[in-house]
Amino acid sequence: LRVVAARAAAWPGAVWSTGHDPRGLVVLAAGIALLLALARPAPTLRERSSWNPGRRALAGLLAFTLAGVGAGLSLTAPTQRPPPGRTWAVFLDVGQGDACALAFPDGAWWLVDAGPRSPRGDAGETVVLPFLRWAGVRRLEALVITHADADHLGGAGALLRGVRVDRVWVPPPTAAVPGPAPRLHGAPLRVAAAGDTLRPMGEVVALWPPVEDRPDFRTDNRRCLVLDVAGSLLLTGDADTLVERALAGAGPASLLKVGHHGSGSSSGEAWLRQLEPRWALVSCGRGNPFGHPSDAVLQRLRAAGARLWRTDLQHAAWFEWDGVSWEPRDFGRGTPAADGNGGGRQRSSRAGDLARRPPAQ
């Protein structure tokens, strides 16, 4: 059964997003149920007195109509999009890794990193794709892979198979650090370096890395893409304090994706004073073997006045930019009441439930 299902799902167009609204599926299911009820053998002689061919034909017509309308509603479900002038940043709970979905006012969706893949599971298949299908996303304008670490790149294969991707942004390769490009054969690759505007009107700007090779930055973490979104959100990948010092002109930032999952090698005091983040998002896995996030980093973030959101404790986070600041939103139950210290478990929205990391991660 698994082989048949997997091979059938691999056919082009076999899997289609039906969005978050269940009404189309309900109508489709009603039509199919009525068709099944009508698929009965010809009546016996005893039943012929109550047999009404005209009524049966009308029921069949109704069943086909319901099934057709339901299929049409499901297959044309609109993509979720922010209100005019707003931008969304959805940090998915992929365990020990990164995956952030961005939605822009014109309805375009981006994904920055695709979560981990290991023998235990593929977060791209089990977390990221289900979320995008729930949101009705059938096309990603761009997929950004910040660097070649498996906890950022691992789910990219599933994404490229499961949804149309117009372009894939990667950092510039060097002889010492080839980056993620060699592992993305056949993808529509584009190279982004410091100073490049990846989306018109400055909505997404690359702050790091530089094109040229530098001796002190010859690791994947130090050559990772650092992005500025809407002039107020910093996505720092696995950048460490050496990269932070090189980005002396960055900031301030209303929302900071904390570098390297809260590792003690990132989020230095000078960097946090420079950014003055209102919110700090730590993407890490519960009980991870690396001890992320570091207690020292959490103390530095609190000292900087940042309110914390941790995916290992509070699961997926959905933030909205209103032109002034980023604020967390729970689209299922209204705005969540954050406790400000990252220690409490917030109520999960429906999107958050879909975006939870799989138990095997």
Explain this structure.
The chain is of the alpha/beta class. The chain is built from eleven helices and 19 strands. It has helices at residues 2-9, 23-38, 53-75, 123-134, 150-153, 156-162, 241-246, 269-275, 295-303, 311-314, 350-354, and strands at residues 87-91, 100-103, 109-112, 117-118, 121-122, 139-140, 142-144, 164-165, 168-170, 189-191, 197-199, 204-208, 226-229, 233-235, 255-257, 279-282, 307-310, 317-321, 326-328. It has an eight-stranded mixed sheet with strand order 10-9-7-3-2-1-18-19, with no helix packed on it. It has a seven-stranded mixed sheet with strand order 11-12-13-14-15-16-17. Strand 16 (279-282), helix 9 and strand 17 form a beta-alpha-beta unit. The longest helix is centred in the N-terminal third of the chain and has 23 residues, at 53-75. It is elongated, with a radius of gyration of 24 Å. Mean pLDDT is 87; it is low at 334-361.
Q: How is this fold's topology laid out?
A:
Layout lengths: L1 H8 L13 H16 L14 H23 L11 E5 L8 E4 L5 E4 L4 E2 L2 E2 H12 L4 E2 L1 E3 L5 H4 L2 H7 L1 E2 L2 E3 L18 E3 L5 E3 L4 E5 L17 E4 L3 E3 L5 H6 L8 E3 L11 H7 L3 E4 L12 H9 L3 E4 H4 L2 E5 L4 E3 L21 H5 L7
Parallel strand pairs: 3-7, 6-8, 7-9, 9-10, 14-15, 15-16, 16-17
Antiparallel strand pairs: 1-2, 1-18, 2-3, 4-5, 11-12, 12-13, 13-14, 18-19
